[in-house]
Amino acid sequence: MRLTLSSYVDTGFWNFDALFVPQQHPARDMQDTFFVSYPPKADKPRLDPANEATMDRMEAGSKRLFSTPESEKKEKKPRDFEKYWQDVKKVHQEGAFGSIGCSWLPNPLFNIVLC
Fold this sequence. Notes:
Layout: E1 9-11, H1 12-15, H2 49-66, H3 69-73, H4 81-94, E2 112-114
Antiparallel strand pairs: 1-2
């Protein structure tokens, strides 16, 4: 199901996994997370023109503050959501940055939660 997310609702992937919160962390329990029942699931992270436009508007302020002549010349690279997905999965399963890794199941990632 295609879901346009706002600043109040997001998937478990963006709300927990992309921030490297382990799947067995207490903050992910039913009593600590507000789940949205409809739609029951969202899709895997992917390119979405509406979300890209929102991200461009959000990043515009920091670009004005921190731009240099060299950064102005750089061509904007498209976001690679599949690589990002695989990188997050790898860190959760194998560990990195001081963690040892743990089991990582993709099923709860698509639950919709209130942020």
